[in-house]
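A favour between colleagues. Tell me how you read the following sequence-structure pair.

===
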Amino acid sequence: MTLTIPSAAAGCVAPPSELKVLRERGQREVFCGLTGIIWLHRKVQDAFFLVVGSRTCAHLLQSAAGVMVFAEPRFGTAIIEERDLAGMVDCNEELDRVVDRLLTRRPDIKMLFLVGSCPSEVIKLDLSRAARRLSARHAPAVRILNYSGSGIETTFTEGEDACLAALVPELPAEAPSAMPALMIVGALPDVVEDQFVRLFDAMGLPPVRLLPARRSADLPPVGPGTRFLLAQPFLGETARALEDRGATRLDALFPFGAEGTTNWLHAAAAAFGVDEMTFRRVVAPGRERAKRAIEHSREKLAGKSIFFLPDSQLEVPLARFLATELGMVPLEVGTPYLHRRHLAQELALLPQATTISEGQDVDRQLDRVRAARPDLTVCGLGLANPLESEGLTTKWAIELVFSPIHGFDQAGDLAELFARPLRRRDVLRV
C-alpha cells in the first residue's frame, strides 16, 4: 500500500406524503462520494482526508481538484496494490505504516479521516476498526475518524453527509445550563458562511455554531438546546445523527435566491424569538440586492423550460428557485434521493405539472429529455456533450456544487449560472 498526495409559482395540490413520485431503478451515471473531499478539505483547515483505494481513486481526486503543482493539499490516497489484493501483505499493517509516515511528514494534521472506497469495501477492509486502533496510537495529538466515500450505492454529495455524520459522535455534549443555540450544518464557502453569521448576529442571536468547524478544535457542542438549519439538502444522515443527540431541525426552504434565503433566515429568527420588525430591518438590504441581481437574468430565463437529471440532490430546491423567482418551467426534476420531510416546503412550491423522479435509469430519462426538448437540461458531465450534439442546451450539474450559490449576495450569480448556457446558445446560432 503506497501513499500518493496529489501534486499541486403555483404550489402542488398534494401534500408531500401523497406526492406522486416516479421511481427510477436502473443504470446510474454519477460521481462517487470521494468527490466531496474536493470541497471538504478546503473547509476543515487542519484535517486530512486519506482515501484507501485504487489508482483510479487517486486519479479521480487529482483531476477533480485540479490543484496546482506547488500546492500541498489536505488529501491523498493510500493505494491498494496487487500485493494487498492478493493477500500477500497485511493491509492493516500497511495502512498503519502509511498513516504513521503521513503524520510524521505533516505535523499540522489534527484530524485524519480514513475514507473508504469501492476497492477497500470490496476486500472488506474494516476502516472503522483501523480508525480506533490508530486513534489510540496517535491520541491526543490527532483524532482519527472514518467514513465511506464509495460510489457503489450513493451519489457524490453523500460523501459530505457521511463525513459530517461521522463527526457528530465526536461533538462535545452541551452543558445542562446552556442557553439555546443555533447551528448551521453543511460545508459552505467561508465568505457565504460569514454573511450568514453576520445576519444572525445583527438579529441578536447567540453566537452561531458551525458544522463543520474550520478547525478541528472548534467542534460545536450539541444537545437538547441546539436548533440547527441544514444548508444543504443532502445531509439526511447528519440530521438524523444530530436529532439522536437531542438537537432540533428547523424546517425551512434552502437558502437559494431571495425568497429561499429569507425563509431560511426567518426559521431561525422565529425559533429564537426575534421580532418581525427587527428581522425585516436586518434582511431587507440583502433581500433587495438579491432581487435586483436576479432581475438581470429574468428576461433570458422567464418562460423557458428546464429538465433536471438526477445528480447532486440540489435539484428540488434549485427548481423551486427557478420556478418561483425566475419564471422558468420545470418539466421534470430528477434527484438521486428524495428526502420528503426535509424538502416538504420546496415540493409544495413546485408547479403542479412538474414530474418528480427519484433515482436513476439513464436510458429512460434520456428518452424523456429527447421527447420534451427542454430549453435547458441540467445533467452530469458525461451526458452534456452527447446531448449538445443532438441540439439540446445543457448545464453541468456539478458546477452548481462547486460554486458559491447560497444566500442573498450569491443569488444573482446563481441565476446567471442558468442564463449563461442560453446566452451561449443564442450567440452560436447567430
Q: What stands out?
A: DSSP finds 17 helices and 15 strands in the chain. The longest strand covers residues 47-53.
